[in-house]
Sequence to fold (262 residues):
Amino acid sequence: MKTWIPDSRKFAYLNWKQVEALPKQETLLVLPTAAIEQHGHHLPLATDTLINNLLLGNALEMLPADAPVYALEPVCYGKSNEHLGFPGTMSVSAATFMAVVRDVGASVATSGFRKLALYNTHGGNSSLVDVMARDLRAEFGLRTFALYGSGGVRYEGVSAQERAYGFHAGEIETALLLSATPDLVDQSAYTVNYIADVEKPETLLPENAAATFSWLTRDIAASGVTGDPRPATAENGALWTKQAAERIALALEAMLRWKDPA
Ligand SMILES: [Zn+2]
Fold:
């Protein structure tokens, strides 16, 4: 899998004597979680994992060289059952996903580390990551953190409709890959589909509302796309990568500085 994580930040490139010598109380380990799942006719199955590698790798490049932060290898298989029925989607159950994160967390604690951040870029994992960040704190006393997607950055120049409902293989994901891995984007195969209209607020929304309906992609988007990839440009992808990486780097630095109240 292509990655932008600097070699010097890869936990798995250390040997055990180097791990033993790390400052365990201060070191922050980051566990990326993503997916291998359909992303329409134009983006690869690995889109969420590539975006995770891209944004985290760029953020890690921005940290001071002596900041003790290492990226664990990603959990590439996520809970993607919303995308079942499309060839290529590899989904694990919620129980399996949580068990893997729990056992990696146990190994982090057993190795003597204290700080662990979960960095997730697949929406179907988000509620599980939230649960696991708390459970790892409770079960192992780890100082856990959860970090999602762009780190909260509002990407410039995205329409209100796309911002609300372009959440799968739409403009943002397409732009990020156009800038980072253009050979993996088939610009002749764009499809457009919106699950709801931002101009017509409904009582039941698909996401981010107090009252929602639970959707499967095959119910609402035959091509597998929810959003509009057509406005995506490599230039915006590069700009948004930089914006997100800066925000993620700030979050990682705050996690490094974090001290629990005595
Ligand atoms: Zn995606």
Observations:
- The CA atoms of residues 206 and 215 lie 7 Å apart.
- The longest strand covers residues 28-33.
